[in-house]
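[09:14] KT: can someone run the structure on this one? pasting the chain below
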Amino acid sequence: MAVLNTKQIMEIIPHRQPFLLVDTIEEMEVGQRALGKKCVTYNEPFFAGHFPGEPIMPGVLIIEALAQTGAVALLSMPENKGRLALFGGIKNAKFKGKVVPGDVLMLETSIIKMKGPVGVGDAKAYVDGKVVASAEITFMLA
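[09:31] RB: done, structure tokens below
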């Protein structure tokens, strides 16, 4: 059973449809780590143009979904309530597989460093237990 449903996620981060890219949070260590889930459907708006006839979830949106997952963990801390998590950088992004309609995308982001309002997350996305994307995400809390 999910730790947080979509409604609860929307109480923590400001993203809304069509840009909310996490359906549920399955596991969470507040301020440290979160495991999110995105059930990818054929009705996702980005599939209309990426690509007609062969729908593939854009890699940048997978990275965004990983960032949103990490933001839920950080912004769940009482002292961060109401803040925004903004991208500061993306390092070593790698894409190792396609994400297509029908896939269940598991999103795991761990906070590996924090110094003041700036931090770094280690992020990996999985489909069927296989890594399809990974990156080191630098963020800033505003």
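[09:33] KT: thanks! DSSP finds two helices and six strands in the chain.
[09:34] RB: yep, looked fine to me
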